[in-house]
Amino acid sequence: MELLDRLNNPPRAFSPIPFWFLNGDLTDDEIRRQLRDFDAHGVHGVVLHPRIGLRDDIAYLSDTFFHYIAVAVEEAAALRMQAVLYDEGMYPSGSACGQVIKGHPELASRGLVLTDTPLPGDTLLAQTPRGALVERFSGGTIRGIHFGEDDGESNAPKSADILNPLAVERFISLTHEAYWQRLAPHFGKTIIGFFTDEPSILGRNAPRGMKPWTAGFDRLFTEAGGRLADLTALFDGGENEGTRLYHRLILQRESQVYYGTLSRWCENHGIALMGHPHQSDDIEVQRHFHVPGQDLVLRWIAPETGDTEGMDTVMAKCSADAARLMSRPRNSNECFGACNRSGNPWQFTGGDMKWYIDYLAVRGVNMFIPHAFYYSLEGKRSGERPPDVGPGSIWWPRYAVWANYMTRLSWLMTDADLHAKVAVLCRNRDLHAEAVAPLFKTQKGFQYLPESVWDECREESGALCCRGRRYDAVLGEAELFPTVPHAADAVAPDCFAEPAQPSLRTARFIRCGVECWLLVNAGETDIAAKLTLPTASPIGRFDLWRGKAYRAATERAEGGQILPLRLARRESLLLFACTEAEWQALADDEPAAGLPAPRFELTSEDPASLTKTYAAVVTLNGSPADRPAQLTVDAEEMAALTVNGRDCGASFWPPHRFRIPAGTLREGRNDLRLTVTGSLANRYGKEPVWYGLKEDGGG
After folding, report:
1. Which of 115, 139, 223, 333 yields a CA-CA distance of 20 to 30 A from 576?
2. What structural domains and CATH numbers belong to the chain?
């Protein structure tokens, strides 16, 4: 069965492609060593990200800089890895680390201000009863690549006006063309894309309340019928015809001048425009990305706050639906950056990472860009937007498990024909987070249709049709299509759970000609329900974490196939329809025998490695069952188990469930050794985080 063959051996191109922070004293040998280490752990691609902490003598876009970039690209080519170029000397993109405005101060970012007192250098646009509308330089900056160039520091590079075609042309000339001149033979081969990172019209640290602007925009605005005086409403949250026109024209300008220009350059040079826009619900500019993307950082969403409340929760559907609408096979997310718990740097758990991966995948994200793998953690570098979720993490020795999981999910959700019968009509930066939350909680698939495609939508026999898709209900600007039902009640869910399961997330789709249901537990407690799948076919189960396929025991009913669903906290599961012969060829899921809870005793503690080691003895009378056994322990944070000297794997979130392979346990004495590794917040964070077996009284 092709589906299972591919899930068991997904192509290397679907591996995670992490940000690699090039942030230290680069050397050829160390660059090569780290790339080989990534490859050995199942990571077959990197984003080459210049980052604060680079040696001072490695100037951005200098010959020395490009020497190290070339070493990385050439080693990646030798390893058959993929490389993504990063288009800035940190972020936000568009300024070439300040070089765009060097010698060209007129290309600096500009903004619109309402003031009682114009300043020297301001351009007066309109005098209104509420004050003067003036254009002025924003004073915005970006974060640079050397110490002393960060936010608020004197050498922070100045941001450029990305609404100005001359600034964007200079940006491309300085960056993209320079990479092309040196690395052209690798474009479209090892080099698959250019990453643009949350470009900001004003730059960082612009004055509070300033609005995006560019030279000559007053003329464009008035020629389009706008009244400049109406724009005073921008400064008190008001809305009128002028403010609506302003937002539309700013979006058009940003799309055409910045994203459109970069997109054409990448296409003409055989690579993809990748990265993400400034905001989680920026959907319209995604049309310019060959790999639409978004950015999950700063714990904007989290297990403790849920995955359906707030604007940022729409980000995964934003990029995935944009890609689907444009028939782009891949969409990405720069994920995990500074997603620390309780404001404590490096307090980022394996359970958190699993939750984020599943949040993204079930919504259709199929390229994971972990933020970040650090070249160096020396000195201040360890505190720069942590944590390291790769070689500097506690789970790196067993990272292949994570890489394989992300790779399987990425392949699975690529070219997946999604079952979505609800169309959600949306405008840019208004993706109706509150309206779609009930769809997630009732397992109903939907597709965002942004304003730019509304003129392609047609009402046909009580349904909405757009780009070859048919939708049976409409949410959002539903009054535009009055003959289509305006309530999701008109649409059946992807599957029926009894009792209702508001924490169950689903995606129903066709992959390799097979009907599939990806199920994710987004909650903090186990799910137990009777699940009905609307199909008459036998059902198989695929454990995406372990990489194992089994038969599902189902019962035929009028509504489809019924099966018991048990989905533990942080678990995911793939169910798939198959033929009778395919179902017969699957193995039965061999149930594990419960192992009596042993009494573990602490035998050693190593604060330097953040480990506590426990030992226990289990005595079994008679021959142990010739089947797997399961041991459950409650510990913080990562736990690894050996039984009679045999490695039984690691678990990354509590409760830790270990599957002990058949034949490991023996009659009589069995020696168990449990090693618990604590959070790196204990080494790099603001405050210590307890770790160990919870039965010891901690946690």
Report:
1. 333
2. 87-274 (no CATH), 420-490 (no CATH), 496-585 (2.60.40.1180), 593-696 (2.60.120.260)
